[in-house]
Amino acid sequence: MNQRESRKEERNDKSEIPIDALSINEHSAEVNVEDESRKEVFWHSSAIILGAALEKHFAKGFPCFPSSNSNGFFYEIFLKEQTVSQEDQEKLQQIVESYIQENLPFEKLVLPKQELLEVFKENEFKLRLLDRMDQQMIQVCRFGSFLEICEKPIVKEAGQIKAIKLLNVSSSYWSGDCEAESLQRISGISWPSDEMMKEWEKAQEEAAARDHRKIGLNQELFFFHPLSPACAFWYPKGALMYNRLIEFIRRQYRLRGFMEVITPNIYNSKLWEQSGHWQHYKEDMFVFDVEKEHFGLKPMNCPGHALMFANRLRSYNELPLRFADFGVLHRNESSGALSGLTRVRRFQIDDAHIFCRYDQIGSEIKAFLDFLEFTYEKVFGFTFNLNLSTRPEHYLGEIEVWDEAEAALKKVLDGSGRAWKVNAGDGAFYGPKIDITIQDALKRNHQCATVQLDFQMPIRFDLHYFDEKGERHRPVMIHRAILGSLERFFGIITESFAGKWPFWLSPRQAKIVCVHESFREYAREVKDKIYGSGFEVEFDENCAELMNRQIRDGQLAAFNFILVIGKREIANRSVNVRGRDNVVHGEIPIDVLVEKFEKFARNYVKDSEISFR
C-alpha cells in the first residue's frame, strides 16, 4: 500500500485514539483572532488546508510542514527541480477555496509512531520530523485524505475560515540549513470574515507605501548590493541620520553615567569558547583561520566587556560600572531570513553592559525603565509593553539568587506605574529578563530594547570585585540596549514616520526658494547662516522654475520647512516660512528662525510645525 492510499484508509482499530475534543476545539466555537494564541490556531489550521492543496496539485511533491508566524501562515514543500509558478499559485488558490466551501472537518488523532513511519515512508522530510520526536504516540490531523503531523490546536472545520488568500512563493532551506535541500515556501493569510480581509488589505497598502526599503531609496538614505548581502550602504543623508541616532544616545549616556568604550571586532575562538558562544552560536558567526588559529568576527559585545572588567582589580566603589559600545557586529544570518534593515548581517547596537552588586539590580533596572520611557514615549512617540520572563526549567545558578533577582525586577516593575505581564519560564538559562515591545503607527509590534540579568558570564570570566573589607565578591552583569540594532530601529521609524522625519533627525530640514534669480545672493547668505548653525539646508540656484513648483517639490521631498525669499524678506532680513504640509507660518527674521531650529533640535521636538506657531 502506498503513502497516499494509507492516508485515505479508514482506521477503526484501537490504535486511533481521539484527543480530548475540548482541548482541541476550544477555539472553534468563536474564532477571535485578536488574541495571539487563537490567531496562531486559525493560521496553523489554514496552513494545513494549504498542505492538502499542495499534495493534491503536486502529485510528485513531498509536503514538509505547516507553520504560522505574526504575518500569517505558510507551507513548505520539496519539488526537486520544479518551482511553483503563477499558474500553480492560482490553481492552489482555487483548491483551498473549494475545501473551505465544502466545510471539510479537521480530525485530531493520536497514532503510534511506528505506524506513522510506515505511512510516511516515501516522504523523507516527514520521517526526519518523526525522528526528532521522542514520544511513541504522535498527534496528527486528518483533513480529508490529507494527514499531517500536528501537535498544535486547530479549528473544528474549514468553513470557519471565511477568507483566505495565497500571497507569494519563495525559496527556503530545510531546517534553515543552506547546505540542505531547497524547498518552496507558499505563504498566505486568512481571516474569519471578509471584512477583516478587506481591513488587512487596506493595512497592507499602507504598509507598502511606508516600506522602509522604498523610502530609503527614494530619499537616498541607504541601499543594498549583492556583492555585500544584507550589509547596508548608507548615503550621506542616511549616514547623517544614523549618526544622529548615535549622538542622541551618547548625549543620554553622559547624563546617565555610562562610559563609552571601543573593543576589537575580531577575537580568537578561545574567547568564544570561554563565553559559551562557540559551542552554541558558532554557526551564526563569520569564522576564519589566521596562522593556524581560529578567529571570528564578533556577533555581540559582552565577552569583550567582560575582558575589560577583568583586566584589573575592581573595587566596590566603582560599581555600578556601565560600559557602552557602538562596535560593529556581524551575524551570519541565513539568506532566507534577511529582510531590508530589519534583518541584516552587519549592524551596530546601542549596547551596554552594567557590572553591579546584587543589591544594585533594582536601581539599575529602574534607571533603565526611565531611559526607555524618555526615548520611546517622549522622543519617538511609541507606546511599549513590558513582560517579565522568569526562570526556565533548565537554568544555571542557585535558585535563591534567581528568586532574589526576580523579586527585585518585580518590585521595580510594580513601582513603574505601568502594566506588565509575566512570561513564566521564558527567561534565558543564565538569568531573568524584561522583554519590551513597541507599537508603531500601523499598530505593529516590534521588539527592540532589552534588559537581561546574567549570572553566568561573571562566572565564566571569573569576574570579581573587592568590598570595603577587602573580600572578593562576584558581580552581576546586566545586558541592556534601548534602540537595539540601529539598522532595525532605523527601518521601524522609517515606516512609522512614513519618511516624514522629526526636525532633529531629518536630513532635509529646510529648503530655500527664490521668487526671482536676482535674490540669489541673499539666499546664499541665508543658507550659510542656517548651515553654519548646524542645520541641513539646501538651495537650488536654478531659480528659473516657478516658485510654486519649487515649493511643491520641496514638500514632496519631505523638507520640514520651505523658506521663500522675495523683496520684502531681503529688506527685513527675514524669510517666509511654510511647512511640508503646506502650513504657512509667515515672515520670520533669520535670527529668530535659527533660535527656533535650535529649540526643535535640543528638545527632540516630534512635530515642529505645531511647535512653530
Mean pLDDT: 90
Q: What is the percent of helical residues?
A: 25-40%
* Termini separation: 80 Å
Shape: globular
Q: Uncertain runs with pLDDT below 50, 5 residues or more?
A: 1-29
InterPro entries: aa-tRNA-synt_IIb (IPR002314), aa-tRNA-synth_II (IPR006195), aa-tRNA-synth_II/BPL/LPL (IPR045864), Anticodon-bd (IPR004154), Anticodon-bd_dom_sf (IPR036621), Thr-tRNA-ligase_IIa (IPR002320), Thr/Ala-tRNA-synth_IIc_edit (IPR018163), ThrRS_anticodon (IPR047246)
Protein name: Probable threonine--tRNA ligase, cytoplasmic
Organism: Mesorhabditis belari
Enzyme class: ligase
Folded structure, characterized:
With 613 residues, the protein is α+β, with helices and mostly antiparallel strands. Helix content is 37%, strand content 26%. Strands 11, 15, 16, 17, 18, 19, 20, 21 and 24 form a nine-stranded mixed β-sheet that branches. Strands 26-25-27-28-29 form a five-stranded mixed β-sheet, with helices on both faces. Strands 1-4-5-6 form a four-stranded antiparallel β-sheet. Strand 13 (287-290) and strand 14 (293-297) form a beta hairpin. Helix 8 crosses helix 16 (486-497) and helix 13 (361-379) packs parallel to helix 14 (399-415). The radius of gyration is 29 Å and the shape is globular. The model is unreliable at 1-29 (pLDDT under 50). GO terms for molecular function: ATP binding; threonine-tRNA ligase activity. Keywords: Aminoacyl-tRNA synthetase, ATP-binding, Cytoplasm, Ligase, Nucleotide-binding, Protein biosynthesis. It is found in: Cytoplasm.
